[in-house]
Structure formats: structure tokens, C-alpha cells
Specification:
Radius of gyration: 13 Å
Number of helices: 3
Strand content: 15-25%
Structural class: alpha+beta
Helix content: 25-40%
Largest sheet: 4 strands, mixed
Order of helices and strands: HEEEHEH
Number of strands: 4
Length: 102
């Protein structure tokens, strides 16, 4: 639902300056929404730097976390999603990068 809300907001003019990323189209495995990188004003503001995720394929989600720059690991952020395995995948990707989650 969070991803759908962001997609609808983007489609209606995008006043919050978000972008929607997919691993492939039209048969996607993962959808990630985030604030446009140029809109990041404060790298320590985890409230403004919110990401939401929906995935059909947990492997695609893990690949996006570990093998792309879709998540700005140098900034504080909140990752929101409702699927089982979402937090564990983020935690494992952070551990692999030597980062700590709070």
C-alpha cells in the first residue's frame, strides 16, 4: 500500500519529489520508491529520507540492496515495507557493508 500511494502521488504531479525504481518493466520483481537524490538536504534526516519497497521476488530485492546504488547507504534512512524478509535482507546487506542498523 505504501508503494502504491507513492506511485499515485508521482502520477498526480509528484509534489513530494519522489521517484519510483523498478528492476525491470513490465514484469518487475521489486519496486522501490525514494526521495529524488537531488532533494536530499540533510544526510542525517532519516525521516525525510524514507524508502518504501514492494517485491514479488525476494532474490531481486536482495540483489538490488547489495548490487546497486538504489539505497544511499551513506545517508540515514527509513526503509518501509510490509513483506516478510524485508528487514532481514536490509540487515544482511548492511552487515555486508560493515554498517550498523538502528
Amino acid at each position: 500500500l505504501q508503494v502504491l500511494g507513492t506511485v499515485m502521488t508521482v502520477a498526480r504531479g509528484n509534489p513530494a519529489s519522489h521517484e519510483v525504481l523498478v528492476d525491470s518493466w513490465p514484469h518487475f520483481g521489486v519496486v522501490l520508491t525514494r526521495l529524488r537524490p537531488e532533494e536530499h538536504r540533510d544526510p542525517g534526516d532519516f525521516y525525510a529520507n524514507q524508502l518504501t519497497v514492494y517485491y514479488r521476488d525476494e532474490g531481486a530485492w536482495r540483489a538490488l540492496l547489495g548490487g546497486t546504488e538504489a539505497v544511499g547507504w551513506t545517508r540515514a534512512f527509513q526503509m518501509q515495507g510490509m513483506q516478510e524478509g524485508m528487514y532481514e535482507a536490509v540487515r544482511q546487506a548492511a552487515d555486508a557493508k560493515g554498517l550498523r542498523l538502528e
